[in-house]
Structure formats: structure tokens, C-alpha cells
Amino acid sequence: MPENSKKVPEVVINRLPRYYRYLGDLLSQGITKVSSTELSKKMGVTASQIRQDFNFFGGFGQQGYGYNIEYLYSEIAKILGLNDGNTMIIVGAGNLGHALANHAGFEKRGFKLVAIFDNSKDIIGKEINHIKVRDISELEDYLLNNRVDIGVLTVPNKAVHNIAYRLVEGGVKAILNFSYSELNLPDDISVENVHLSDPLMTLSYKLKRSKI
Amino acid sequence: MPENSKKVPEVVINRLPRYYRYLGDLLSQGITKVSSTELSKKMGVTASQIRQDFNFFGGFGQQGYGYNIEYLYSEIAKILGLNDGNTMIIVGAGNLGHALANHAGFEKRGFKLVAIFDNSKDIIGKEINHIKVRDISELEDYLLNNRVDIGVLTVPNKAVHNIAYRLVEGGVKAILNFSYSELNLPDDISVENVHLSDPLMTLSYKLKRSKI
Q: Which chain B residues touch A195 with a CB distance below 8 Å?
């Protein structure tokens, strides 16, 4: 599927994982076709927006009464690079790092957790999801000898800049940052920040509205 | 600040927490004014989009070279209901529940964690962030005697529908769902779903693009 040469807007990129999840749900229910109208209801965007989104990637040819879900699902997987064998490491084996290391959804979507690092003597050497936690002092050595595509940062705020810098120095090109701190990294490094209090604030807004 | 009677689009609502966070960052750096152009660079939306967003809430009167950050910050806090004393409980005291119970950002934004529930004998009675984990069998009784605004669900997928139902029966109007399962709840219940693999998929996309 040839990708449109036009730059794909961030908001469209951010919808791709949601399309992918929703199509996966439909497939697991044995559904094989979906119309842009049905998709739009679920996604909370208009049907024309969905067609516009898909046109960035060649359109996926909606025919008759809908899209072929299996085809659409596998095409979006390709666009997202879910078949590329991306490897990831987690730095910070506290509760959140622990939870992420056990998150079944990552492996299911093609992300291979290859190492976990921490600086605490209490955790180093223990196994999480069959992976032994390494000493953070081994990070540079590990990056020199292993391909790591994505670094997941679940370290305290005060440590995050230093660790991010070390990952980038070691050749990691993508970082998933769970700390509150914004990272200042070179332009060729992709960063996604996860702010766990954002959805709580959204709920708070909706609660307030519903009371009016 | 009178809110525009027009329904605020979901996408605008979802930007409010980000505005709030960014303004808080600026304040903590001692900055007092910001232009819509500066805000727009940071937020990755156009300056005109920012003005449109703010117009839903009366506009916040940008004057001269920018917005008064302290005023804007406190107005957005009010709109988000962050001063409303929202109470929350966490159901599921595994690693993720544990991490969330210790998440400093929640309290900082006005969310008060009042109880934690689990069904495991190993965890019930233990303290997390000074809160004793209660037996899930006490949930109904607790909801009968305490106001709970938000329920945070960090239970396994197979348990999530039952627990969500029990929360709603007990009068909880807002749910933050960390499970993979979509909840089917009455229309007057606000639900936010957190899918931790979405930002990983976005990173994967960006990695793939950057290689081309």
C-alpha cells in the first residue's frame, strides 16, 4: 500500500492504534466487514474523517457495504510497523515498570521486551516476566551489543533526563516516557509521553458537566 | 467564566489537561505571560485552534502580547473541576494499582484517593501510600457510606465488567478503565479508557517513518 507523500498529521497517526485495536476486537468476534459509518460511531469521529484518514495511506478501498476487516487490520499493522520486530527495554523496575513488563498487550502487538534495568540492589537479579533485572550500570554495554528500538522510562523524575540521554547516546531512537518531565532530545528521536493524570482530569471535567 | 452553550467537542476536552499541565510548567518556571503562538508550538496545534478552543469557555481574553498564565491556569482548573474535591478509589492492588496509588500527580491535581480494594488475601490489610487495602467484598458497604466520584479499575480483564457494574450500582459516576475490555455502561456514566500499548504503536509508526 503506497503511502501518500503528504505528511500525515499527528492527530491521524494517533488514531491509527485505535483503529487497529477496534478492528482487532471485531475480528475476534468473527466480524469480517465494517462500514465507515459503523467505524465512525465507535471511534467518535465522522465517517468522512475516517475516509480522509485512510486516504493518507491509499484508501484501503471500501467496497459495497464496507471495508474488509482482515485486510484493513493487516494493512494498519504494516503501517504501524507492528511486524518489524521492534525490541524494547524498560528502565525502572518499580511498580509501574513491573506492571508494564507483565503487560500482555505489548507482546501481542509485536513488541519484544529484551531487558529490564534498575539501580536498586533489592531488584537487580530478580526475574520479571522471565527477564532478569540488570544493573543500570550495564546499560551502555548492553546497548553496544544489542539492538534496542524503544526505551520505556519508568524511573523517578529526577533520573529521567540522565537515563534518556544515555539511551540516545547508545543509539535508541524512540522513547516512551512515563515521567512528568518533558524530555529535550534531538529531533531525530521519537518521544511519546504518557501522563496518567490526563484521563483523570478529563473524567473530572465530565463529572462536573454532568452535574450542571 | 461563562461556558459557551455549544457542546464542547471531545477533542477540545482532551486538550484541556494538556493546556493545564503546560501552563503549570510555565508557572513553576516563574513565567507569567504566554502568547497563543508559543502555546501552539508546544501543543502541536495551530494558534487559531487554541483561540477556538478557548472560545468555548469565554476566550480568557488574550491581551497585548499574551495570556496571563496564572489566570488561565486557575480558570482551566475550575473548568476541569480540579477544585471540586473529587474522591477516587482504586480496585485492583497489583503492580499497576500500586503504581497509581503512589502517583504524586493525582493528589497534586486535586484527586483524593480514599480507598483501595483487592480480592487477594496476600494484599488485603497491607498499606499502600498510607491506605489500607480493603477486601473487595466490602465494596458495596463502602460505597453506601462514602462518596466516591471516580473508580479506577486495575483488575484483570475477566473481572472488569463485574467490578464496573458493582461500582455503578453503588453510585459511582466516573470510571478510569485500564483493562483492555471496553465497558458497556449506562450513558450517564463517564468512562475513560487507558490503553498503554497505543503510545508504543505510535512510536513504532514513527520509527518506521524515520527509516524511510
A: 17-18, 21, 105
Whether residue B57 is found in the same domain as residue B105: no
Question: What is d(CA A166, CA A168) in angstroms, rounded to the nearest whole number?
Answer: 5
Contact indicator for A173, A204 with CB cutoff of 8 Å: no
CATH code, B37: 1.10.10.10
Q: What predicted TM-score, i.e. pTM, was given to this entire model?
A: 0.89
B105–A contact, CB cutoff 8 A: yes
The number of domains in chain A is 2
Per CB-CB distance under 8 Å, the chain B contacts of A197 are 17, 103, 105-106, 108-109, 111
Find residue A134's DSSP bridge partners: A117
Provide the domain limits for residue B112. 87-197
pLDDT at A63: 64
- Taking CB atoms within 8 Å and a gap of at least 24, the contacts of B122-130 are B123/B93, B126/B93, B128/B93, B128/B97, B128/B98, B128/B101, B128/B102, B129/B101, B129/B102
Chain B from 49 to 78: CB within 8 A of any A CB: none
CA-nearest residue to B206 within chain A is A190
Under DSSP, the state recorded for A169 is: H
Say if B88 is an interface residue toward chain A (CB within 8 Å). yes
Instruction: Check if B2 contacts A (Cβ < 8 Å).
Output: no
A177 forms beta bridges with: A153, A193
Confidence tier at A1 by pLDDT (50, 70, 90): very low
Average pLDDT over chain A, rounded to an integer: 91
